[in-house]
Specification:
globular; about 0% strand; 4 helices; mainly alpha
Length: about 100
Amino acid sequence: MSEQQKETTIFQLADKFIALANELSAEEQDIAKVGTALRFAAARFNAFEAALKSADLKAEKTNALEWFTKEYKDMLNDNLDDHIDNPPSAQQEPAKDEAVQVFNG
């Protein structure tokens, strides 16, 4: 097996997070709560990542916010397009959660 084949891709890592999120959604019966927790966890971990990579996080905070925001927006855009083209098979009613705004289009 080559070195490249041994390396875990970002997609394989993401699939592990998604599997855990699906498991938690089944336990909690609240996809919005799990989604909010996942976004908070990503924000917390990304802040930690930025802190480790930065010589002066206070001075670089605006650049970090712009970079992470653009990365997330691009990824979300791609995945929204994917769900538009390939809607989930089970249509669910939007979850009711005051902490999360439900987008009704």
